[in-house]
Design goal:
The chain has about 300 residues and is of the alpha/beta class. The chain folds into two domains: about 130 residues, Zincin-like, CATH 3.30.2010; about 100 residues, no CATH class. The two termini are about 35 Å apart. The structure holds zinc ion (ZN).
Length: about 300
């Protein structure tokens, strides 16, 4: 994406943040042009251009993945921990879910508390204020669940949100919190603060587009992910990240193999695993995530 913005009255350019990596900066007198490039396929709802004044930090994960952080100065103090936390979450999620699917990561922390939402915009989630660890885990988990593999229809939104919510449960498991089964039980019996309304409809059957972000899609979706992971023989201790002895599926698709599914039309078909024990790593359609989800 190529974006041209004016300089302000002091002659300073506004910051322009897009998806992927910043590849070129041009000064054109009273304007500047910034070029951002995302190497991997991207669904249109994940595109983001943010323009304003930000504190920019470029760091790297332990594996050398570029991390681009853009923080509104009003959130500077609250977002101070992100330099360490983003690499930590990426390292943790890569162990849990497989290799990170994009060529960079990061976060955009704005100061718009009235906006009241965050979005998993590709490579750099957008936050209306400094996120806590739980929200950061949720949006970064979407890079695997929702961004690398995107549903073909909005009614399948639970494949995004159920798994991103389930990632929050697993983060808690690995950081001294409740077990996933305890969290499941608190949703089931209604004692979890986010459990209200989760039984209103089946996660994959929202009655209309107005309901694709309702509690069943998130909370009940996470419960399905948990039950499916248990049924497929996975465990939830922090020592069980690797494939167990009976594990047959290997990992989530890499960005190169998932690209065919990521923007699939209803007519387009993704290769399906004919046998669970196949040694070939092929890109699964979203409907097969449950079979492949490994914790
Ligand atoms: Zn989400």
């Amino acid at each position: 994406m190529t974006v041209t913005v004016p300089k302000d009255e002091d002659g300073d350019p506004y910051d322009v943040i897009g998806n992927g990596e910043l590849t070129k900066e041009e000064d054109k007198g009273d304007r500047v042009t910034r070029h951002w490039r995302s190497k991997e396929p991207m669904a249109s709802y994940l595109a983001n251009v943010t323009v304003g004044y930000f504190e920019i930090a470029n760091v790297r994960t332990g594996d050398g993945l570029p991390v681009y952080l853009a923080v509104d100065p009003d959130e500077s103090e609250a977002a101070e921990g992100l330099r360490d936390l983003v690499p930590q979450v990426i390292a943790w999620a890569s162990k849990r879910f497989g290799p990170y699917p994009f060529s960079s990561t990061g976060a955009i922390v704005d100061h718009l508390p009235d906006l009241d939402y965050a979005l998993e915009t590709q490579t750099k989630p957008y936050f209306d204020s400094a996120p806590d660890a739980k929200l950061l885990v949720h949006e970064l988990a979407h890079q695997w669940f929702g961004n690398s593999v995107t549903p073909r229809a909005w009614k399948d939104m639970w494949l995004n949100e159920g798994f991103a919510n389930y990632a929050e449960w697993l983060w808690e498991v690995d950081h001294g919190g409740k077990t996933a089964q305890e969290t499941f039980a608190s949703y089931y019996d209604g004692t979890h603060p986010e459990s209200e309304g989760i039984w209103n409809f089946a996660p994959a059957d929202p009655p209309s587009v107005a309901h694709v972000s309702d509690p069943p899609v998130y909370g009940h979706g996470a419960m399905v992910a948990h039950k499916s992971a248990r049924r497929s023989g996975t465990r939830h201790s922090s020592t069980s990240c690797g494939p167990g002895p009976s594990s047959t599926a290997t990992r989530m698709p890499t960005h190169s193999s998932s690209s065919r599914c990521a923007r699939g039309s209803p007519e387009r078909t993704c290769p399906r695993s004919s046998t669970a024990g196949s040694s070939k790593r092929r890109s699964p359609p979203a409907s097969e995530w449950l079979l492949l989800f490994r914790t």
